[in-house]
Amino acid sequence: MRISAIQMNQTSDKTANLDQARRLFEAALEADRPDMITLPETWTNLGGGREARAAAAEVLPEAGGTGGAAYEFLRRMAKGAGIHVHGGSIIEQGAEKLFNTTLVFDPNGREIARYRKIHLFDITGPDGTGYRESALYGAGSDLVTFAAKGITFGCTICYDMRFPEQYLALRRQGAEVIFVPSNFTLMTGKDHWEVLLRARAIETQCWIAAAASWGSYEERGATRQVYGHSLIADPWGHVVAKASDGVGWITARIDPAVTAKVRRDMPVLEHRRLA
Questions:
Q1: Domain boundaries of the chain, sorted by first residue
Q2: Which member of 58, 92, 111, 117 is catalytic?
Q3: Could you say which of 9, 56, 86, 159 has the lowest number of CB atoms within 10 Å?
Q4: Residue 139 near residue 159, CB atoms below 8 Å
Q5: Entry pTM
Q6: Has 149 been annotated as catalytic?
Q7: CATH superfamily assigned to domain 2-271
Q8: Rg of the chain (C-alpha set)
Q9: Which residues are registered as beta bridge partners of 5?
Q10: What digits encode the pLDDT tens for the residues 90-118?
Q11: Tens digits of per-residue pLDDT, 163-179?
């Protein structure tokens, strides 16, 4: 299976973000012919404050129902290209709060997975910038996996990567590939991004596919930056594809034989004594 991870420079303009995603989808499909495409975290909105996030939010439909612009875009791209689409995450309008939510569609345009981000980003960065995701978003509680082409995939989002117990739980549920769509800050990304993702790959012996946002955006009158450097790592922790600065995509082939060999030669899950 070939997976393409798209790297975007989204803003608070949802219509422009949809157009950017469409162009990158089409370019990746033409150049690399992937079996699955994955997008970054909240790719329909980055910046602009509460009002912009609320405007970008969508009420997600029940099974088979019609959704909003981003939901239908993902479904249309999956069905039109005949591939699986892991929709990074979009902003879901909940009853009381928003949710940071992943959607996955199969080649028939059928939704097959929905994951709400569990760990919310409430921190003060090294440069003193404060982030309070819980002020707007509710936290999910359920682990989510899905199957595609005989491979089991696990869902996480950005800050989740700092909590290895979630990744171990996904491995125990059969995950062979784990997605990590992200808006990782520049200040933390330059020191932690790659090392955390490689660690999660090594610990779980899973492939890691992390589509990220890159560049600057405006948030309440201030300019903020996200790190980018989307990457795909194999179960040994090798980075097999990595994006540089700018928008674009990366593609790598997921080989189940590699997964099987790593797990056979070093059966760490069988050797665990704690947790």
A1: 2-271
A2: 117
A3: 9
A4: no
A5: 0.97
A6: no
A7: Carbon-nitrogen hydrolase (3.60.110.10)
A8: 17
A9: 38, 250
A10: 999 999 999 999 999 999 999 999 999 99
A11: 999 999 999 999 999 99
